[in-house]
Amino acid sequence: GQNIDQPTEMTATEGAIVQINCTYQTSGFNGLFWYQQHAGEAPTFLSYNVLDGLEEKGRFSSFLSRSKGYSYLLLKELQMKDSASYLCAAMDSNYQLIWGAGTKLIIKP
Amino acid sequence: DAGITQSPRHKVTETGTPVTLRCHQTENHRYMYWYRQDPGHGLRLIHYSYGVKDTDKGEVSDGYSVSRSKTEDFLLTLESATSSQTSVYFCAISESPGQNTGELFFGEGSRLTVL
User: Fold this and answer.
1) What is the pLDDT along chain A (109 residues), one digit of tens a residue?
2) Quick count: other Cβ atoms within 10 Å of Cβ B115?
3) Sign of dihedral through CA atoms B89, B9, B51, B62?
4) Span between the terminal Cα atoms of chain A, in Å
5) Residues 44 to 83 of A: which have CB under 8 A from any B CB?
6) Of A52, B35, B41, B90, whose Cβ has the fewest other Cβ atoms within 10 Å?
């Protein structure tokens, strides 16, 4: 079957660094997505990885290892506005997205 | 921001009544999706469309139907609402899943409560 696993909740301190992990199992693979979702709002696109390695975009970076079925989202210099849920999603061979349940990130001052 | 609007944004209805949610886009994107989001679950695909009058089922399509008569509109209908369909419904669009990043742009969501 197809499956995405990510931690349910994480807590971090303002100004620190946090890494949110995601493991996936899909029938075929066409990329790994990260979305951010603030409470009561729609998800918004953060990053896309299809090749192994690290993609950096400002304070956010995303890493992919296809052989391990593993990705992580790295958030640096955490700000209070980063408090949100972070959704991991893998695209299968039919270009359908398989979604994780999301990781709720709580930032403390 | 991608031009996607959902209506209604909030609705309370009773078991057994029909409900239609509307998604309207101004981006001329080919693909449109309806998802539901419930606590403890990832986004779950209900139905999607890959063109006018071209639709297909997602993983949780039972009890739902869709129609797409124009590129810009994608309707989700609950023929006879049940309490298990209480959820937040998101519409999403994309140009093409296989092109560029294939990212989805989401509407603001429609919160449906079935009593």
Assistant:
1) 789 999 999 999 999 999 999 999 999 999 999 999 999 999 999 999 999 999 999 999 999 999 999 999 999 999 999 999 999 999 999 888 999 999 999 999 9
2) 10
3) positive
4) 41
5) 44-45, 48
6) A52
